[in-house]
Design goal:
The protein folds into two domains: 167 residues, no CATH class; 149 residues, Protein Transport Mog1p, Chain A (3-Layer(aba) Sandwich). Helices cover 19% and strands 30% of the residues. The protein has seven helices and 17 strands. A hairpin with a 2-residue loop joins strand 9 and strand 10. The chain is elongated and about 55 Å long.
Length: 346
């Protein structure tokens, strides 16, 4: 599978026109996305679409987080801090993903909502990125705001319908900054075979039990060594406690505390082990320019795969076990992360 092109595609096709300062080098909390029930006045609505209540699949959640992270602006101390804002909506239709692609053309978007014209289609076949459907991206500048729009049409073969996700992100125009795309990860050859890990992973995770099932209290235990699980919430609805998790559905956030020490955990179950690897790839792109080749800090395409980072934002460790994805971030540094990881069951 190609390295997840959420960073590459979204940066090149949309945010080449947006003046972002840099990619955020952390995976703690997602920017606050607001769910809306209808489309914006500059986005046409295709006939037959109905607003629905649906969680965000993992691959869309990753796209959204990457997009907003690329728009987030972290300034030096004393500078005005301007952040991106984001809204999203989801609809269902009996039409196909190709119908969605054929409706949201460059010509229609430019005419209807003054979105930037393009000589090439900004829609891409989702099969290239491990989901059934298409996604399209558009951008424009209006009222001194940089605006990006992503449309993802994901086909549900079981229900014979198409879910269409829209996300709109805006940030203040950064006058005088470089408008070149942010530097992201580089695509690698297709990765279809996952090989056994040779050697030892950080924290010896290869020797631990494989996660199984969907029980959140087992997968994210209430007590991990000295840390107590203080918060459990949906990634797409912060503050809402999940009662379950779906394979290929939205990820779950857990916050563990030991006094003033805190560990932020993200957990998700992908459809396949290859898709879990893709999420790990995105983590590498957000925390560095490329996946580390030093086995002390990273291994991908293996079982298990992992990424270990220690920088000014704290200590971060992400790993996969089959199609299960975990990440743990300790703002307090390596000692805090070590105490958590030594006790985590997977």
């Amino acid at each position: 599978m190609k390295r997840v092109s959420a960073i590459i595609l979204f940066s090149l096709l949309v945010f080449a026109t947006l003046s972002c300062s840099r990619i955020v080098r952390r995976l703690t909390n997602d920017p606050n996305l607001k769910k809306v029930g209808d489309l914006w006045t500059d986005v046409p609505k295709m006939d037959g679409m109905a607003s629905v209540e649906a969680d965000l699949p993992i691959f869309i959640h990753v796209l959204l987080r990457t997009a907003l992270n690329n728009l987030y602006r972290f300034n030096k101390e004393g500078e005005d801090k301007t952040h991106a804002t984001g809204d999203w909506a989801v609809f269902s239709t009996s039409k196909t993903a190709d119908d969605v692609r054929n409706f949201y053309t460059n010509e229609r978007m430019t005419t209807f909502g003054n979105w930037a014209a393009s000589n090439k289609s900004t829609c891409v076949d989702g099969k290239q990125y491990s989901f059934s459907g298409v996604f399209c991206v558009f951008s424009k500048k209006a009222n001194h705001r940089d605006i990006g729009l992503m449309i993802v049409a994901s086909q549900d073969e079981e229900k014979k319908q198409t879910n269409v996700f829209f996300v709109r992100v805006e940030s203040d125009e950064q006058v005088g900054t470089n408008t070149q795309p942010s530097k992201g990860v580089t695509a690698t050859a297709s990765r279809t075979e996952i090989k056994p890990l040779e050697g030892v992973a950080p924290f010896g995770i290869e020797q631990r039990a494989m996660p199984a099932g969907l029980n959140l209290d087992e997968l994210l235990p209430k007590q991990v060594g000295p840390y107590t699980r203080a918060v459990l919430e949906k990634s797409s609805e912060r503050g809402v406690t999940p009662t379950s998790i779906e394979v290929g559905g939205g990820s779950i956030y857990a916050t563990y505390r030991d006094g003033s020490k805190e560990i932020f955990v993200e957990f998700g179950i992908a459809d396949t082990a290859q898709n879990a690897q893709s999420i790990l790839d995105v983590a590498a792109g957000e925390t560095g320019d490329k996946f580390p080749t030093d086995p002390r800090f990273g291994s991908i395409g293996t079982e298990p795969s992992y990424l270990k980072v220690n920088n000014q934002y704290g200590a971060f460790y992400a790993w996969t076990r089959g199609n299960y994805f975990f990440s743990a971030n300790a703002k307090g540094g390596e000692a805090d992360l070590d105490a958590f990881m030594q006790a985590f069951p997977y």
